[in-house]
Design brief:
By secondary structure, the protein is mostly helical. Helix content is about 75%, strand content about 0%. The chain has 8 helices and 2 strands; from the N terminus they run ααααβααβαα. α1 packs antiparallel against α2 and α4 packs parallel to α6. It holds the Pfam family CDP-OH_P_transf.
């Protein structure tokens, strides 16, 4: 019984950190003093999200309950929390407040749609269909830390792009084959504790360093969108070419 509950403890930890990130962003004040810590808590939540499934597979403790709990937690930690962090630090003082509200809402909505699709549609082995919400949320929350260097219009556009990538059909590598040996599960609490310690000591530096590989992973999808667009263009061109002889024969 306890063994089956261990993966869910990681998932609940993920949810807890997402809620704390929202509270920190809400209480960040005019100087956004807590934004860096809120963003890094989303990163640590991503670590927990990656561990819960691996621990479940290592312990052979996978369940439908754990799957649903994971999805519900992800909506909060990687959908609502990152969108709220971005809104607080970059969007709330914009003149176009209605646009800021809509863009902020679109992100967790697309995240929820992506999770629902993931739960009901079988994907391609070795790949996710669409940008995973933990990666999208982590990119958004760390991107918010650059609000002084990046114009609000670009941050708005970036939020929309990340939202669309989540509900796209672009294939992203999933790395699920990188598992945890059953004998090494006892190391996971040490890894989490170390990550939290580093997050508290170096919140800004660590989150901005992690932002780079996450951004590269997300941008991988733009290349996929380009390939999909080319493929669609070729199909339409081929269909048009096949249709023209048929029309000429009909008129003849």
């Amino acid at each position: 019984m306890i063994r089956n509950s261990i993966p869910s403890m990681f998932t609940v930890g993920n949810l807890f950190l997402g809620i704390i990130a929202i509270i920190l962003a809400f209480n960040s004040g005019a100087d956004n003093s807590n934004a860096e810590l809120a963003a890094i808590f989303v990163i640590v939540a991503m670590l927990l999200d990656g561990l819960d499934g691996r621990v479940a597979r290592a312990l052979n403790a996978q369940s439908e309950f754990g799957k649903e709990l994971d999805s519900l937690s992800d909506v909060i930690s990687f959908g609502v929390a990152p969108a709220f962090i971005m809104y607080v630090v970059a969007f709330q003082n914009m003149e176009a407040s209605a646009l800021a509200w809509i863009v902020t809402a679109i992100f967790p909505i697309c995240g929820a749609l992506r999770l629902a699709r993931f739960n009901v549609i079988s994907g391609t082995p070795g790949y996710f269909i669409g940008l995973p919400i933990p990666a999208a949320g982590s990119v958004l929350s760390t991107l918010a830390l650059f609000h002084n260097e990046i114009p609000s219009a670009i941050l708005l556009a970036s939020t929309v792009v990340l939202s669309l990538l989540m509900v796209s059909t672009v294939k992203y590598p999933n790395f699920k084959k990188v598992g945890i040996p059953k004998t090494a599960i006892w190391l996971t609490p040490i890894i989490v504790a170390g990550a939290v310690t580093l997050a508290v000591i170096y919140p800004g530096l660590l989150s901005k360093l992690i932002f780079i590989p996450l951004l590269i992973y997300a941008l991988y999808g733009l290349n996929g969108l380009k390939k999909n667009a080319r493929r669609l263009f070729r199909r339409r061109k081929r269909a048009k070419q096949l249709d023209e002889p048929a029309k000429s024969e009909t008129h003849g």
